[in-house]
Amino acid sequence: MAHVVALALSEGVPIFELAAPCAIFGEDRSQLTGTDWYTLKVCGPPDAQVDRWFAAATPYTYDDLAVADTVILPACHDAGLRPAADLVDAVRAAADQGARMVSICTGAFVLAAAGVLNGRRAATHWMHAPTLAERHPDVIVDPAPLFIDQGNVLTSAGKSAGTDLCLHLVRKDYGAHIANQVARILVAPPQREGDQRQYVDPRPAPQAGDSIGSTMQWALEHLDEGTTVEQLARHARVSVRTLHRHFVQRTGAKPLEWLNSQRVQRAQQLLETTDLPVERIAGLGGFGTSAALRRHFQDALGTTPDLYRRTFTA
């Protein structure tokens, strides 16, 4: 059965934030996968106004969010960034049903109002990050990354960062090769170049006196040493159980899952920017062997290190 993506409209939603989800998930691209593709349902009030120019006619309402596999919240257009109560209730119900929750730009205000972002790092447009942090103190607002992936909850910065996040979702669901093909069809980069690289920022925001944040930074500096969860706990001066709780609260992942994701990202960077052999990259990333690197790379990105290097250095 096709993966159902529900795009939740609100009154006056900017059309730019609707374009990427519709182009990426709404077009049938099963010819690329050889199997199925997403089913997109645009959900909202009858004849909702889109920007100043269009009215959206759709047979799907907010009730359909609760049966979707992924729910996407584009920008919240309300001048006070206070989403409608019926939309918030529907988003909360969808989250309770286990849907993957995604926001673009100020759509994070909808997720925050529904309680989905409590205790999580979240991205939004940098202009509105202070307002989100002030209004929802239980949300760890980070204005720096283009997007943040916490497993079943993903948030992005404004405008074009939404395209980056949508392509990232395709990469998670169908692998890097398919995501790159979709990007080429859209004439969009599969990743940002230079300082605007689209990868999720792997570093915790520095916090004075924050032992977990310091330990995460220490782990990033010692990835090549094959750091273990027990070593992380000793560095943070907490038990493994306490470390586990803090990591899940902060990143949405267990300590070992987080470590492996950082190792994969380190390998990605080295594959893109160096001509080092895969065996050497495996060592620098802390995987120990090239076989371990290939296994984790395939699990995370749906491709091999060699194919990834050819794709991103072509």
TrEMBL record:
<dbReference type="GO" id="GO:0043565">
    <property type="term" value="F:sequence-specific DNA binding"/>
</dbReference>
<dbReference type="InterPro" id="IPR009057">
    <property type="entry name" value="Homeodomain-like_sf"/>
</dbReference>
<keyword id="KW-0804">Transcription</keyword>
<dbReference type="InterPro" id="IPR018060">
    <property type="entry name" value="HTH_AraC"/>
</dbReference>
<dbReference type="InterPro" id="IPR002818">
    <property type="entry name" value="DJ-1/PfpI"/>
</dbReference>
<dbReference type="InterPro" id="IPR052158">
    <property type="entry name" value="INH-QAR"/>
</dbReference>
<dbReference type="Pfam" id="PF12833">
    <property type="entry name" value="HTH_18"/>
</dbReference>
<keyword id="KW-0805">Transcription regulation</keyword>
<protein>
    <submittedName>
        <fullName>Transcriptional regulator GlxA family with amidase domain</fullName>
    </submittedName>
</protein>
<feature type="domain" description="HTH araC/xylS-type">
    <location>
        <begin position="213"/>
        <end position="311"/>
    </location>
</feature>
<dbReference type="InterPro" id="IPR029062">
    <property type="entry name" value="Class_I_gatase-like"/>
</dbReference>
<dbReference type="Pfam" id="PF01965">
    <property type="entry name" value="DJ-1_PfpI"/>
</dbReference>
<dbReference type="GO" id="GO:0003700">
    <property type="term" value="F:DNA-binding transcription factor activity"/>
</dbReference>
